[in-house]
């Protein structure tokens, strides 16, 4: 069995299983107070260290609480931070491991995705990638048994990303998940303005309005916005904050947004 082992356990989130579960469940419990509305088909969630972006991510994941037995497959897209990728990189692993246990990879669906020319098998982009890994403990806490389809996204067109999402769209059993932070390393006031503009673009399902300053995961976000429009979904902002609101200084902040599509 081919196992992708955790790369950022003990840094982005606790490496101890008990400490990790307690932290995630505490953040989810705080978010559940305001978790209303329909179960989303898709989510955009941030991917920084849990002390920074965990509360914002939890506000999105709390929306899945009533569907923990329904959602059986998660299509997860995040930017490739460490390895250059043309298109989207699928994994050859059978499981992704976290301190909370194994997450099975849906190998049959991975093989189907490889029929698209923009998708290829490449484990290098996955080996150290945190944007995908940090979502897994949240998913392990909010869902029952589920399979994962992780893709590290590099240089790809909006249409190429949307085509993959359309191929794997499925029904109520499938959740689409895009991992992305927003603006990076501006002062607090400037970040608020940039992130508000990004939020307006997301709510308008307007991929063309997102640029380099908008989000590190702008490529998969753009694809999700196009696919959402094609499938008649609407976007709703759940939470919008920055590291200056959670656990960091305000001279150089990173923006975090949580968005639901239903």
Polypeptide structure, described:
By secondary structure, this protein is α/β, with parallel strands linked by helices. It has helices spanning 17-32, 50-61, 107-113, 124-127, 130-133, 136-142, 158-167, 188-203, 218-230, 243-246, and strands spanning 3-4, 42-45, 73-79, 88-90, 95-98, 101-105, 119-121, 147-153, 174-179, 184-186, 235-242, 253-261. It has a single domain, classed as Protocatechuate 4,5-dioxygenase, Chain B. Strands 1, 2, 3, 4, 5, 6, 7, 8, 9, 10, 11 and 12 form a twelve-stranded mixed β-sheet that branches. The radius of gyration is 17 Å and the shape is globular. The model has no long low-confidence stretch (mean pLDDT 97).
């Amino acid at each position: 069995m081919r196992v992708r082992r955790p790369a950022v356990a003990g840094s982005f989130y606790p490496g101890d299983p008990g400490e990790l579960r307690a932290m995630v469940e505490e953040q989810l419990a705080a978010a559940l107070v305001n978790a209303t509305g329909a179960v989303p088909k898709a989510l955009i969630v941030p991917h920084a260290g849990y002390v920074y972006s965990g509360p914002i991510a939890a506000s999105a994941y709390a929306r899945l609480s009533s569907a923990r037995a329904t959602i059986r497959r998660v299509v997860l897209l995040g930017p490739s931070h460490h390895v250059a990728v043309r298109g989207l990189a699928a994994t050859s692993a059978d499981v992704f491991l976290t301190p909370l246990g194994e997450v099975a990879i849906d190998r049959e669906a991975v093989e189907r995705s490889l029929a698209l020319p923009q998708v290829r098998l490449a484990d290098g982009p996955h080996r150290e990638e945190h944007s995908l890994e940090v979502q897994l403990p949240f998913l392990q806490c909010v869902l029952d048994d589920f399979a994962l389809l992780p893709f590290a996204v590099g240089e790809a067109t909006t249409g190429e990303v949307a085509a993959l999402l359309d191929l794997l769209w499925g029904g109520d059993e499938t959740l689409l998940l895009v991992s992305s932070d927003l603006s990076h390393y501006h002062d607090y006031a400037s970040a608020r303005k940039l992130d508000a503009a990004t939020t307006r673009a997301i709510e308008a399902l307007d991929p063309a309005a997102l640029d380099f300053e908008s989000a590190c995961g702008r490529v998969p976000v753009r694809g999700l916005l196009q696919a959402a429009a094609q499938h008649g979904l609407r976007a709703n902002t759940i939470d919008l904050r920055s590291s200056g609101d959670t656990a960091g200084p305000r001279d150089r902040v990173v923006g975090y947004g949580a968005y639901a599509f239903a």
